[in-house]
Amino acid sequence: GQQKKEQLTEVTKRIYEQELKLEHTLEKQSSIPSSSSSSWTSNYQKWNLWEDAEQIKESLESDKRAQDSLLKNTRAMTGCSSHDRSAERRVAELSLSDRLGEMKGFCEQGNSYYDEGQYARAAMKYKKAVIYYEYCFPENEEEEKQTEEIRLTALSNS
């Protein structure tokens, strides 16, 4: 979670810097006077100021795609897309026994994915189990014991 946020921040920062660089490059290129005399100093000056705007645009597009991908992955991990909280509301409205059943199911699915070698999918299922834990409010020691047991299983497997 934290690593994805850091990656997203880094990509967003690069996009901002590249947009500024592209704008600056286009301004520089338009301000270079076209001289009829071709002295070596003016040619060198033009070359020194030259940056490939197309290359900057390609790099910018690549980073925007990476940003979109990171945003989609982050949303998928939380179970909520954009500002839609219906999935969160559905979890909160479940009874504790239903929530515990869902958590066990996620852990079992995670174990199946792990056995198949699909480690990323397994980790997502364990993370979902931990997310459901955040909505558990046990009322007695037995419920608390069950909740903690499932949480520890999910955390140790993820």
Features:
single chain; 158 residues; mainly alpha; 7 helices
Helix content: over 70%
Global shape? elongated
Number of strands: 0
Structural class based on helices, strands and sheet pairing: mainly alpha
- Average pLDDT metric: 80
**Amount of beta strand:** under 5%
Separate helix tally: 7
- The rounded Rg comes to 26 Å
Largest sheet properties: none
What is the element layout, followed by pairings?
Layout: H1 2-31, H2 40-49, H3 53-78, H4 86-93, H5 96-115, H6 119-133, H7 141-157
Helix pairs in contact: 1-3, 5-6, 5-7, 6-7
Describe the fold and architecture:
- Helices cover 80% and strands 0% of the residues.
- It has 158 residues and is mostly helical.
Can you summarize this structure?
By secondary structure, this protein is mainly alpha-helical.
